[in-house]
Amino acid sequence: MAVATPAKTMTNVEAVRSTLYDALKRDDRIVILGEDVGNRGNVFLITKGFIDEFGPERIIDTPIAEASIVGIAIGMAMEGLRPIAEIQFADFIYPAFNQIVGEAAKTRYRSNGEYTCPLVIRTPYGGGVRGALSHSVSIEALFYHVPGLTILAPSTPRDIKGLLNAAIEANDPVLFLEHKRTYRLIKDEVPDEYYTVPIGKANVSKVGHQLTVVSYGLYAHQALDAAHRLEEEDHSVEVIDLRSIRPMDRSTILESVRKTRKLLIVHEDNKFGGIGAEISAMVAEEALFDLDAPIRRLCGPDVPAMGYALPLEEEFMISTERMVDAMREMVTF
Amino acid sequence: MAKTMTSAAPGKLERHGLTDEQLRAIFRNMLMQRQLDNRGFQLNRQGKIPFALGSEGHEAIQAGAAMAFDRGKDVLAPYYRDLGLALGIGFTPLEVMLSLFARAADHNGGRQFPNHYSSRRIGMMSFSSILAAQIPHAVGAAYAIKYRKEAGRAVLVTFGEGTTSEGEWHESLNFAAVHALPIVFLCENNQWAISTPVDKQMGQPEVWKRGAGYGMPAERFDGFDPLATYDVVRRAMERARSCGGPTLVEGMCYRFLSHSTDDDDRTYRTKEEVDRNRQHDPVPRFERVLVENAIMTAADVDSMKKDVLRETNAATDEAEALPYAPPSELYTNVYEGAYEPWQ
Ligand SMILES: Cc1ncc(C[n+]2csc(CCOP(=O)(O)OP(=O)(O)O)c2C)c(N)n1
Questions:
Q1: Is a pLDDT exceeding 80 seen at residue A230?
Q2: Pocket lining: B129 vs ligand 1, CB cutoff 6 Å
Q3: pLDDT by residue (tens digit) across B30-88?
Q4: Where are the alpha helices (DSSP H) in A63-106?
Q5: Which residues fall within 8 angstroms of residue A78, CB to CB, at 6 or more apart?
Q6: Domains of chain B
Q7: Percentage of residues in chain A with pLDDT exceeding 90?
Q8: Which of these, B6, B30, B1, lies nearest to B227 by C-alpha position?
Q9: DSSP, residue by residue, B69-103
Q10: pTM across the whole model
């Protein structure tokens, strides 16, 4: 990736940390609240040392009470602060469902714009880290049904910085999903300067003409690897990293599908009612007669969760091999 | 079964530093609540509006608490039964009628149920129908006030006793106590949560006693007495404004009407119980206090009642004549800026 301005190489987790740090420096309306974000500096050490530099009034170690972590952040936002709430693991977000879906997403709407809720809720999600049933879930499909919410799931350090900045700038609530497995796995150059990546724009991470693959999060990387492998077999696959789940970039998806005439959707969250279901329906409604093959979804299995034991985790996760196989089947269909 | 409210005999005036003019303002607020409540139920029976909800029995607690609110400074996070609090901090009868008629000029453009008042102008936060959901919002607002070191400001948040069973209620008091936030939690205990009496809602029937569990001062008072209410809420708000931390206060009152126009209380409580409580109706009771203490004459009371009716009629007519929001308004204020719904 060519970078014109000075840049640093960093991992995904470092990108989250440095973007939060710059935000705290820039704007004293920003406070961070969550479990263990202060003294310990978050379980992944994302906010390590922040409490010493910015003080306990801005880096708030909350009681273990997710509904009120989000609820209090909503009140702060309604009264002029710019809170960034953390849910320690996405699996623990369920107690806050009411506050996110019933309250944050509807504050602007129900008050007809008199009150707004500029709030970022960050949370690590996803599997492949031996996180067992309750430290591995994907939660995006539980929330993407909700107008008023913005849901971001960037996969690279560059996009993390740009989209986290955009989320912080936004005057509406944003659910910001960070795939745990990518935290230290993914490394890339990140420009030093302040920038935002537009919310609602997907990234075409590889151009191709025989098949469109739509993914996000950890699998955006594996899908790209798989596409490169097919390149060696002389197959040309286009890869789209959604980055933004709601709003979704329908025009980038449709344009690509109309060109390649085939669509594969890959995500870790289970298939039934997942993000892929909506994309498939949208493409079927808008571009059915442009397709040369049935739409295919390669998704997490329809079970309650991945297991802790290695074979139970591996069975749930989709290997790059399986992506290669699915792509090969589709390009040769 | 819920008990009858017992309260001190009227007559004696403890004015707690309130001027005659303030005492009359409290009474006028109580009369206005009663009148607007009546109007809401009438309009519903006339088939003009699909829903109304009254606060009869809450007049004293709300008019008294509103007097302890510092307009232009404090923040109110109300719930749906707070007509009198809204009026007492500057919401107008016309604004109430716009909410009842769900007109375009209503603060939320007719999106919400009636009685879900909010107004940035007077510091009254927007809330949903989800019980207890507004309580952490109030705590967040109190945090913002403390964070910005705005001494002299406080948040007043209200709820029925039924709402105190929700987890968010507990979480909010706990957090407010940890951070010594400038907030007062006011429980309007009308002894019924729709059809569920207090003894089915909680093992310890005195909500205020839970304050000790959070490490915050707490007090219970006669919520049929606006001046006792004022005294307790004012002291709690003063403590909050001067960085003394949160307080839990509980006013005892009674819900005279059904929960709403969609409820029929005869299916779960006796007429005798309601009548017993009606004997302590705070509106005639406060009227007697004012007249016996020569704050108002019977003629003054009479002309105030007429005036309140006139204002209610005018507000009703004005709101009714105004238009609904056009259907296109369904699509606005989903996010900031233009919004293209997925289709
Ligand atoms: C979360 C939630 N659960 C249930 C309801 C339905 N509901 C509306 S009002 C009410 C009773 C509330 O009682 P209380 O808090 O004592 O207030 P009151 O109406 O008596 O003033 C119930 C159960 C709701 N609105 N929200």
A1: yes
A2: yes
A3: 999 999 999 999 999 999 999 999 999 999 999 999 999 999 999 999 999 999 999 99
A4: 66-78, 97
A5: A107, A115, A116, A117, B125, B126, B137, B140, B141
A6: 20-321 (3.40.50.970)
A7: 98
A8: B30
A9: S-TTT-EEE--TT-HHHHHHTT--HHHHHHHHHT-
A10: 0.97
**Nearest ligand 1 atom, CA B133:** 1
Instruction: Note if A135 is an active site residue.
Output: yes
ipTM value: 0.96
Residues of chain B found within 8 Å of residue A81, distances taken between Cβ atoms: 140, 143-144, 147
Rounded CA-CA distance A262/A278 in Å is: 16
Ligand 1 pocket test, pick from B164, B191, B194 with the greatest ligand atom count within 8 Å of Cβ, gives B194
Of ligand 1's atoms, which has the minimum distance to the CA of residue B194?
11
The contacts found for A249-254 with CB under 8 angstroms, 24 or more apart, are A249/A200, A249/A201, A249/A202, A250/A282, A250/A286, A250/B342, A252/A201, A252/A202, A252/A204, A253/A202, A253/A212, A253/A214, A253/A279, A253/A282, A253/A283, A254/A282, A254/A283, A254/A286, A254/A287
Beta-bridge partners for A188: A10
Residue of B127, B131, B207 best suited for mutating to test ligand 1, as the one with most atoms within 8 Å of CB: B131
Share of chain A above pLDDT 70, in %: 99
* All domains of chain A in start order, with CATH: 8-191 (3.40.50.970), 203-331 (3.40.50.920)
CA of B102 to the centre of ligand 1 (A): 22
Chunk chain B into consecutive blocks of 10 residues (it has 343) and report each block's average pLDDT, rounded to whole numbers.
Answer: 49 89 98 97 97 96 98 97 98 98 97 96 97 98 98 97 98 98 98 97 97 98 98 98 97 97 96 97 97 97 98 98 97 95 87
Alpha helices (H) in chain A, listed in sequence order = 12-26, 50-54, 66-78, 97, 107-110, 140-143, 157-169, 182-185, 218-232, 250-260, 275-287, 310-316, 320-331
